[in-house]
Amino acid sequence: MKCCARPKNGEPGSRATWRSDWRSDVAAVKDHVRSNWQNAVLVCRKCSKKMDGGFGVDGSQRLAKVLRRHLTLGKGRKAAAGIVEVNCLGVCPKGAVTVVNGARAREWLLVRPDADLDELAEMLDLPST
Fold first, then answer.
1. pTM for this structure?
2. Lowest-confidence range among 4-8, 28-32, 56-60, 70-74?
3. Is 99 helix (H, G, I), strand (E, B) or coil?
4. Residue 96 forms part of a structural domain
5. What 3-state class would DSSP assign to 110?
6. What is the rounded distance in angstroms from the CA atom of residue 77 to the CA atom of residue 82?
7. Containing domain of residue 60, as a range?
C-alpha cells in the first residue's frame, strides 16, 4: 500500500474495519446498572438557585444537599434513596423549591426554607434517621 493511498475495505485502518470493531465494543456495554435506591426524589435546581440556598443551619445550602445530609442516605447509587437535582420543573413558586416524589409523581410539593426536614422526609417516603 502506498503511503497516501486509502486502505481498501477489510484492510486494517479502513472504515469498514473500524465500524465492525466499534459494533463489537457496543455489544459489550452494560444495558443496566443496579442501585440501592428505594425511592427517587426530584428537586428543582432553578428554584434552589433563585433562593440562594435558603436551607440548612445558616440558610446558605440547597435543599437537596441539606436533605441528603440530614437523612444520612449515603452517596450515589449505593444510597438508600436518590435525591436528584433536575433542571426547571416549570412551577417556579416564589420563596419555595419544587420537589417531586418519583413514586407519587402526581403530587408535587412546594418546600419553604422554614420547613421541618423530618416532616418533609415523611411526606416523601424517605427513610429517616
1. 0.73
2. 4-8
3. strand
4. yes
5. strand
6. 7
7. 40-123
Residue 22 falls inside a structural domain: no
Distance CA 128, CA 118 (A): 7
Closest to 110 measured CA to CA, from 102, 120, 118: 120
Domain count, the chain: 1
Please provide the distance, in angstroms rounded to a whole number, between the alpha carbons at the two ends of the chain: 70
* pLDDT recorded at residue 60: 86
- Digit-coded pLDDT (tens) for 79-128: 889 999 999 999 999 999 999 999 999 999 999 999 999 999 999 998 77
Cα angle, residue 57 at apex, residues 52 and 58 outer, rounded to 5°: 50
Q: State the Cα–Cα distance between residues 119 and 96, nearest whole angstrom.
A: 16
| N residues, the chain | 129
